Amino acid sequence: MDLNEIIIGYGKLAREASHKLATTLTKEKNRALLLMSKKLKENKEIIKKENEKDIENGKKDNLSDAMLDRLLLNDNRIEDMANGIEKIASLIDPVGEIITGWNTENGLNIKKIKVPIGVIGMIYESRPNVTADAAALALKSGNSIILRGGKEAIHSNKIIASLLKDALKETTIPEDAINLIQTTEREAVKIMTRLEEYIDVIIPRGGSGLIKAVTEHATVPVIFHDKGLCHVYVDCDADLKMANDICMNAKTQRPGVCNAMETLLINGKIADKFLPIIAENLKKDGVELRVCSRCKEILPNEKDATELDWETEYLDLILSIKIVDNIDSAVEHINKYGSKHSEAIISNNYENTTKFLNSVDASTVYVNASTRFTDGGEFGFGAEIGISTNKLHARGPFALNELTTYKYIVLGNGQIR
Amino acid sequence: MDLNEIIIGYGKLAREASHKLATTLTKEKNRALLLMSKKLKENKEIIKKENEKDIENGKKDNLSDAMLDRLLLNDNRIEDMANGIEKIASLIDPVGEIITGWNTENGLNIKKIKVPIGVIGMIYESRPNVTADAAALALKSGNSIILRGGKEAIHSNKIIASLLKDALKETTIPEDAINLIQTTEREAVKIMTRLEEYIDVIIPRGGSGLIKAVTEHATVPVIFHDKGLCHVYVDCDADLKMANDICMNAKTQRPGVCNAMETLLINGKIADKFLPIIAENLKKDGVELRVCSRCKEILPNEKDATELDWETEYLDLILSIKIVDNIDSAVEHINKYGSKHSEAIISNNYENTTKFLNSVDASTVYVNASTRFTDGGEFGFGAEIGISTNKLHARGPFALNELTTYKYIVLGNGQIR
Questions:
Q1: In angstroms, rounded to a whole number, what is the distance separating the alpha carbons of residues B116 and A3?
Q2: Complex ipTM, two decimals?
Q3: Cβ of B296: how many Cβ atoms within 10 Å?
Q4: Model confidence over A220-232: pLDDT tens digits?
Q5: Which residue in B374, B391, B413 is closest to A117 by CB distance?
Q6: The pTM is what?
Q7: A108 and B373: CB-CB below 8 Å?
Q8: Of 3.90.550.10, 3.40.50.12780, 3.40.605.10, 2.40.50.140, which CATH number belongs to A3-224+395-411?
Q9: Buried b (16+ CB within 10 A) or exposed e, B363-390
């Protein structure tokens, strides 16, 4: 059987299972999730043994220590992964929720309700816990899933997927609701992304190389996370103590994540007062600064920011800083260079905060809070499959709700046109 | 300037205009729409003159009479087109609507609100009225639009777009909110579908050739209408008079549209009684029947249905008919062959109707009503840009609401993580 037929085979099984899953009771889905968690907890030794193979191969392939750490599964991490599934069992099932409803003039009763999407294709790299997270989120929202993990985690992914499928055997849910592509051939990704008949959405989770490989040839809709080039704009009417705390948090609390600040914009009227303080605090925490020519007058020793800096998501302890004349210049800069992820204004001015909220084009816009809150957990969604920088279907934190679509239910009593 | 640069040029202008449009007052957008309508009504002669060129070229190119009729603009049709714009002015503006909102434990106030998508790329064939319809819907929902009409209607499209842009000159809305690609080169479509930076969604409206050309290479998300292979299932507990009326309506009232019935499923228990009657009525109205082997016992003179018939959207006075044992077989057939568009059950049985509504995977599922109601106008949406057979973002009737996305607005008072 060639690779194409193998992947189509998964697609057929997943599609069939999805029809069954779509009407499975929440109670049964939750029971399955708890069994899935139990299986992982009971099989820590075997999971660690398989994981060791990946670690050894990773060492042979000279993976970085950071990469090896992301691959590693130990008792604690397996426990966390299993607890994550239990958490998902405790969340509200979105399926069946009535979004809206009305009666038409001729007496049709129309309801728009949430239903599972069908079959999710998940393509991801390194961290093997994604196998469990994604399978659990898909199952809770009534979807089948086809998982395609990275080569480097293949042994870990295989044992995890196999344990999750074992758990389903003790339920009424077909085990084909969860599928892991067993081969690591790159071609499998391309085939998946063109399988419209059997896969309803592709979710890539990984670096820009993966995103590009997926979007390049996909005919299946793709929801992805591109980059997070987030700004904080400190307005002339800002509480400068608050501005300092928020900027420090947005830049340094976890610089490697997508909702961290990459560029700081400061209103010219308060730059003399604010810039020296925040610059000192940032540098104290090891942040390298890249500043505009106007900043340079205040901070003559800092490195110049180039055009490239305004376009760069550092994901590191580096920050570009620019002085702007007013709210309009701030909004203009953000709409030009921002990645439409998370943007914040620090201000007590009604007009400026309102203008910022209305005019900035981003998934999440903040007044007087850190950009770091753009997160399914922080938003109260319980768990997330990622953060979407797309505008269609899912924008921002991408959780259970976004794993559903809707259908219209129309009740009549003989209406014709 | 090469074609690529030309299209990118449109993209940049449209993107810039979209930022302005996003915060334009509803009042001003409505004023613009009424001016657009007025321009069309005042310039009927010039529109007809340009349209004549398309008609002449169409005749030279041996377009069918049906195609030529679709191309034709006369006084009435121009009046209708203009009135359509006025209708859109009267609809509720979706922008700014709060979808949901809540406070988090740490006091952040989060609101999820509807915002324009940004820049719409519309790729369509023949009917020049789409130029006006699509531009008006995009503008009302705060979006810029880049229009790419068919070669056969280029003169009509150019004059319509130019008049609409003229109307915008009398408003505060930048005229770059509406753009028509002036060239008819095919390559332009491919360039548009890969312009993620400047186009947020591509909406193709046309035959399957166009859909395929668009989805094949697109990196921009695409929302399209594929096919409408709709079923009516007449259950054992159906009111047979109602079933007859609905089937006749779903098949014959307008057989060439996507929400017409293509396959009739009949429960075996009532087939003896129902099939002869409905077959006679259908044939009286000129419908050709293609029947399953069980139907054949009742209707020995009808043509055999083949596997291909169950997969075919006839869009014509042809109907395939199958007898099924029960609701489960009906659902199975529909989920296998249906195009997830519109599906109806005719029944007075609570268990069967419930099962049908829950188990059939389609944008719209009906009890005791004709599939012909899947339509933005019939749903009360006022106007529609099309019907989506996609599952993500827009499913079913695709109107003003679906031309918006959302953003999260987060109000804090100094929150950090």
A1: 42
A2: 0.95
A3: 15
A4: 999 998 889 999 9
A5: B391
A6: 0.94
A7: yes
A8: 3.40.605.10
A9: bbbbbbbbbbbbbbebbebbbbbbbbbb
